[in-house]
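Dataset card, provenance and construction

Sequences and ligand SMILES were collected as paired inputs. For each pair, a complete structure of the chain with the small molecule in place was predicted and serialized as structure tokens. The example below shows a pair involving pyridoxal-5'-phosphate. Curators did not alter the output after generation; any descriptive sentences attached to a record were derived from the structure itself.
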Amino acid sequence: MAAPMRSAVTKVGAEMAAFGKQHLGRGIARATELVWDNGKGSWLYTVEGQKYLDFTCGIGVTNLGHCHPKVVKAAQRQCDRIIHAQINAGYQKPQLELVQKLLPVMPHESLDTFLWFNSGSEASENAVKLARHATKKQNVIVMQGAFHGRTFGAMSMTRSKTIYSAGFGPLMSGVYVTPFPYTYHYLRETGGDKATAEDRCADHAIRELKLLLKQQTPASDTAAIIIEPVLGEGGYVPAPQRYMEQLRKLCDENNILLIIDEVQSGFGRTGTYFAIEQYGVRPDILVMAKGIANGFPLSGLASRKELMDKQAPGSMGGTYSGNAVACAAGVACADVMHEEKILENVAARGAQLRAGLESLRTSPTLAPLIGDIRGRGLMVGLEFSPEAPAGISARVQKACLDRGLLVLTTSVFETLRFIPPLTVSKEEMEKGLEIFGEAVREAVEA
Ligand SMILES: Cc1ncc(COP(=O)(O)O)c(C=O)c1O
């Protein structure tokens, strides 16, 4: 039996939430009205001690679980030494150590030079600055459904939902949109053989991209194409192998840089250190954040020295870039990834998660409603079919919350995403799946 139903909040929490509602900006979407007090491993606790199984990880940030002891210790130690060793003042040890830790896990040996920032948005914008400057070209092609952040440049490249840019325009110019190869939708629309759908969808998307280069932004004006290898905010959709290979080829043929945004898919989330490794495709620029420091604000770019060194000193950076405490936490994360064999757990728990979700299809009531179960490692999405009632994903999310499980929806389609900690145990995964199954049944019957 799953966790008992719980009332959303009790008095103390309700008063604090009301205060927050009064004094914090409305522009932030909140999945709950709960007030969090602490977190440990896969669990979050409210100010009143109610416990929630966290399958959201701060949207793929606390990959090693909340307050991993080694990460906490490394940050505490660094706080005692120096917190703000500002990057323009010289080098600092944690930053250099982090580079040392990351060099061997880069998806390609050519990615040998780094720049640090604070957020994913900042890193993705700076990837465009790097690409524009290095190629002396202006335009950038983004994927339909992409999410690269909310600051001006990043928002201009975000195409997952109109809410992110509605009313904020005009946006940064020079951004062109090409279809992301979304096999599930392609197959529903075109029909045909399921086995070849992924390849056909990839070919279709490449044809559209070629058309874009002929009709709207010529290669001679196009600096870069930016893609999330597993579309995150757009629905947890892995790009087909064939698409990524053809994309690399097309970039090479046209002197266009390929920017791989692994802000959400990086640091073990998909079963390899970076998702792009699974494709064997070389990024020109890799964008990283989130899991890099398990909750400390840190993001970065990795690219070829030859590209990075074209930049004039002072043209990049930021006051807090590569903060010493965040980098020390990042170093500890890299150690934990290795010492605790995190990727092995991702493989085992990822298989358990997929099998658990697939088992929902054995119910004759649920089977027609479950459209697609997809993803890599512990970055898994479940999209309901168009036959499912409208608003089902939000109802399932709420029913999970009532039972003590936190999950997130994603995209403009009826999709739920699973982002449990990479350290999640077998028992915790079992519990999460049990609650999820109950929640889906409740939402369908309602
Ligand atoms: C793929 C991707 N890129 C960029 C971002 C933006 O990161 P941030 O919210 O830290 O600015 C996100 C955030 O979810 C993301 O998933």
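Derived descriptions for this record:
The chain has a mean pLDDT of 96.
The radius of gyration is 22 Å.
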